[in-house]
Write a structure and sequence with these properties.
This protein is mostly beta strands and about 650 residues long. It contains 9 helices and 39 strands. Strands 1, 2, 3, 5, 6, 9, 11, 13 and 16 form a 9-stranded mixed β-sheet that branches. Strands 28-29-27-26-33-37-36-35 form an 8-stranded mixed β-sheet. It has a 5-stranded antiparallel β-sheet with strand order 23-22-21-24-25, with helices on one face.
């Protein structure tokens, strides 16, 4: 077989075995495909995938691996909300000036049923476009034309990747899939682990077979090696539907992974790819400390003397964060390596997450702090099932602080030392030291963020209520509120005041808006219609909340966990005086509600001394995740909390 080695060809994968199912031919759309829409059969989904076929093959030689992925998909658009499925986007890796992925052989069309006849509208050339995202990333999109409710869109194309291709396949959409046909021929001379997302409620059956591909030598076909074929054929795959307070739904999508563990070519030694986390991040450590952090001496003269003179460690870290943010703005791109050389990023004033936080790291080290990079994954990425950097796209900095770490992200303008923006607090990150030693660091907040409200109110003669309110936000609650304030087009803060302010809102003031290490405080006064008369009685909500809090947990059951993003507490204290000429007929009872051994609790206390009433509402959430198996207990608890908040004080005239 020396002639094979001389040709440089080891595996050439040909066609796919479709003996187990019937192929659907592009363009052959029948009137019956429109039947549910034509007969007015309502669907709860804006669109449905009628057919999806995905075929993967590799061309493999001693110099490179090229993956070919063929996609054929047919989608019925049921409602206007489903028009978004008439646009298809793919992220492509590589630079136009070097190796890069390409999309080729595109065919796409829209079909409509008119008087029993299927009319075809081919895609227009102007509906295809490509934009550059980063130096090594592009986005290719195409949009079908003449789309209307009841239309069917269909497309077929191939992605050619010189990088060996993608290592995973999505098996589930946000809409149902009627027929799914996935076939992957795994290159011979390689061993693979086939894995599925363990968090998904849908795990398909998988078929395995072997084929013997061949190459042509003149007029003679010569066998190369037996190749493994993985096949999934499934019907009626359920939609992955968003549920209230799900967050990061990608963690639960049905997905198949191909993990190449080793390879051994003819007469060649075995090569392993199943590296441990330690081996994998040792390579990352070498790259960061040898290449990324070299030539940072320029920062030494940039650090202001005032920053060096700060003696308190946390204050110095916060000052370093503020300094970096004043010099370099986030380009809105992630990455755990720098987009450019750090000096170039610093001089240009813009960089990706990796570059900004490596600059912060270099400055902290210049200030003689023990600080290390932490490679992590932003929200939206699935949890890695095996050692791989594929889902790691973020970098933060950990600063030694006593027996713990202060986690910092200079790409976020609104978080203090020890706080991460919600987008970055995703599971665990890998702390990396110069000697190659690495360890996992928990990125999820283990502290409570607080919202405290003090409301001193007066009931006026016309039974309206005038309130003087002071709100205090800490930690991530402060970060979220500062983000809302920053997003406002003007200084009209009505949008951030969680009250019915139609009667009047005035005297709004903000404190510590830019001092991120301090609680954010907002004060305001407003008037509201607070007392309702029914018959001879008057009803007042003791918490003075005219807006009725809606219960987000109305489903009878859940498939996905409830995610509150971080532990938090909400405490509200209301003081008011019953006006002359009224007396209290009934007060709500004080009560404490507890969920699962104090994981969450709600304390409601109300007291009356003369005509003065004080109400305390205190909700404590010490965990951020509620698993689906505990949903019914949680639903009962939370429903009781809302019911308690809505109880009324009953008054009557005397």
């Amino acid at each position: 077989m020396n002639w094979i080695r001389k040709l440089g060809i080891f595996i050439l994968v040909f066609g796919f075995n479709t003996a187990n199912g019937q192929d659907i031919t592009f363009g052959e759309v029948a009137a019956s495909d429109f039947k549910p829409v034509e007969e007015g059969l309502a669907s709860p989904y804006s669109a449905e995938v009628l057919y999806r076929k995905e075929e993967i093959s590799w061309l493999f030689n001693i110099f490179s691996v090229t993956q070919y992925k063929k996609i054929h998909e047919r989608v019925r658009i049921n409602k206007e909300e489903g028009f978004k499925y008439a646009t298809v986007s793919n992220s492509l890796f590589g630079s136009e000036s070097a190796r890069h992925e390409i999309i080729k052989d595109l065919k796409a069309a829209t079909y409509q049923l008119v008087d029993g006849v299927v009319i075809t509208y081919p895609i227009a050339d102007a509906s295809q476009f490509e934009i550059v995202l980063e130096e090594n990333s592009r986005k290719y999109s195409f949009t079908m034309n003449s789309v209307a409710p009841g239309s069917i869109v269909e497309y077929m194309y191939e992605i050619e990747s010189p990088f060996g291709g993608r290592s995973s396949i999505d098996l589930q959409y946000d809409i149902p899939i009627k027929i799914l046909d996935v076939t992957a021929q795994l290159p011979a001379y390689n061993t693979y682990d086939i894995l599925f997302n363990p968090n998904s409620s849908f795990v398909p059956s998988i078929g395995n077979s072997r084929v013997d591909p061949s190459v042509l030598l003149g007029n003679r076909a010569v066998g190369v090696a037996t190749t493994q074929v993985v096949n999934i054929k499934a019907h009626d795959i359920p939609a992955l539907e968003e549920e209230p307070l799900t967050y990061n739904i990608e963690q639960y999508r049905a997905r198949m992974y191909f993990r190449r563990t080793s390879s051994r070519f003819r007469e060649q030694p075995l090569q392993r790819y199943d590296k441990s986390w330690e081996e994998l991040f040792k390579e990352v450590s070498d790259e960061i400390y040898t290449n990324e952090l070299k030539n940072t001496d320029f920062l030494r003269k940039e650090i202001p003397q005032s920053l060096r003179e700060i003696t308190t460690r946390e204050e110095q870290v916060n000052a370093a964060l503020a300094f970096v943010r004043s010099k370099v703005a986030w380009s809105k791109y992630d990455g755990f390596y720098a987009s450019e050389q750090l000096k170039e990023v610093y001089e240009s004033g813009s960089g990706n997450v990796g570059a900004i936080n490596l600059i912060l790291l270099a400055i902290l080290k210049e200030l003689n702090m023990e600080a290390y990079p932490v490679v992590s994954s932003s929200k939206g990425n699935p949890e890695p099932l095996y050692p791989s950097t594929a889902t790691f796209d973020y970098l933060i900095v950990a600063v030694k602080y006593g027996d713990s770490w202060l986690l910092c992200d200079a790409s976020s303008k609104l978080t203090a030392a020890g706080e991460l923006p919600v987008r970055a607090a995703n599971g665990k990150g890998r702390l990396i030291k110069p000697d190659g030693l690495t360890c996992w660091v928990n990125l999820e907040p283990d502290y409570q963020s607080e919202e405290i409200t003090m409301n001193n109110a007066v009931i006026n003669e016309d039974l309206s209520i005038s309130s003087n309110v002071r709100k205090r936000y800490t930690k991530l609650d402060a970060y979220i509120m500062r983000s809302k304030i920053e997003s406002l087009d003007s200084l009209d803060y009505k949008e951030i005041i969680d009250h019915d302010t139609e009667v009047g809102l005035e005297e709004i003031s903000l404190e510590n808006i830019d001092e991120l290490e301090k609680p954010l405080e907002i004060s305001f006064t407003f008037k509201q219609k607070g007392i309702e008369k029914i018959g001879g009685f008057y009803y007042l909500n003791p918490l003075l909340e005219e807006k009725v809090e809606e219960n987000p947990f109305k489903l009878e059951s859940r498939k996905l966990p409830i995610n509150f993003k971080f532990p938090y507490s909400q405490k509200k204290i209301v003081n008011f005086i019953i006006p002359n000429g009224f007396e209290v007929v009934a007060l709500p009872n004080s009560e404490k509600l507890v969920y699962e051994s104090d994981v969450a609790s709600y304390q409601y206390a109300i007291s009356q001394i003369g005509n003065r009433i004080t109400v305390v509402s205190d909700f404590q959430m010490k965990n951020s995740i509620i698993e689906p198996t505990f949903y019914m207990q949680w639903k009962q608890f939370f429903t009781s909390v809302i019911a308690k908040k809505q109880e009324k004080i009953v008054l009557k005239k005397i």
